[in-house]
Amino acid sequence: MKMKVWELHSTQKRSSLAGRLVVLFVVLIIGSVNLRAQPSGYLFYKTVTINGTEVQGTHTDFPVLIRVTDSDLSAYARNDGFDIVFTSNFNETNILDFQLESYNSGTGELIAWVKIPSLPDAGTTIYMWYGNGSITSNQSTTNTWSNQFRTVYHLGNDFSDSTPNNNNGTDSGTNSVTGKIGNASNFDGNADYIAINDSYNSNSESETTVSAWIKTAQAGNQIIASFDRNEYWRLEVNGNGGGDGEIGWDLLTSGGQIDFGSSTRIDDDTWRYVTGVYN
Asked: What pLDDT was estimated at residue 237?
């Protein structure tokens, strides 16, 4: 079973993680390279247009996926991509919070998450800057995921929490494979798992959202992510709420047991985006 869990907004203390989530509903339009430096020290920029037809509602401080393969980045950015940054306006010197997930200098492939201060349903334009030889360190920040995200994992060979909460994972037996976006963690369906730090307070948390991109050809029970205590939740394939090859979202609350199931099978060995919500 190959899974990727990317984002976990969770009310939890103890979890087993098997996968990764990605929210991908923007269209990126990359402009041409320009020999101009703003903010200070940068020689090149490109416009990144988020298509309003792909945005539903208005969002504040929303991390948007920027994924592009560009020969200009390969030619003019640092080999480690540390000089790639983003601003909300052309004449803006303040750098937007972002996370550089990966950069391949040979191909110019960039995967980054940029926190957009205001993302209206009409769309917006931001600016990507690169070509600054004075930059020597990664300018990513955990503040990219500070807006109600409890844990965010990109997986592959990286089990650290991308949020400021430091809920880092501990891998047990998985291996890195190509995922929906970037790398994923592959679970053998036997004893592989990723354990994360306790981070749930049932007395103060009343809402839970668990999301993941997963890929499986198996119809039987497969845990995507779970929290098990006196109160619990579990997002899984099959389970109490789902039938063979369907998604189950099972919860035990102070009000009793609640089980939900999808109406669509996902055991077709293609990437599927799944989400469980409790409020």
From this structure: 93
Residue 224's CB: how many other CB atoms inside 10 A? Answer: 30
For the chain, what is the largest distance between any 2 Cα atoms, rounded to a whole number of angstroms? 63
Alpha helices in 45-117 (DSSP H): 71-76
* Residues ≥6 apart with Cβ < 8 Å to 184: 2, 3, 4, 19, 20, 155, 156, 176, 177, 178, 213, 215
Q: Classify the C-alpha dihedral 156-157-159-161 as positive or negative.
A: negative
Q: What is the mean pLDDT of residues 188-208?
A: 74
- How confident is the model over 161-179, as pLDDT tens digits? 999 988 899 999 999 999 9
Both tokens of 190, joined, read 């036997």
Give the model's pLDDT for residue 278: 86
Contact assessment for residue 110 and residue 67, using Cβ atoms and an 8 Å cutoff = yes
259, 264, 269, 270 alpha-carbon torsion, rounded to 10°? -110
Residue pair 101/129 in contact by the 8 Å Cβ criterion: no
10 Cβ contact partners less than 8 Å away, ≥ 6 residues apart: 150, 151, 199, 200, 208, 209, 210, 225, 227
> Nearest-CA neighbor of 95 among 60, 70, 129?
129
Helix (H), strand (E), coil (C) string for 161-178: CCCCCCCCEEEECCEEEE
Q: Which of 94, 169, 78 shows the shortest CA–CA distance to 127?
A: 94
Distance CA 94, CA 224 (A): 38
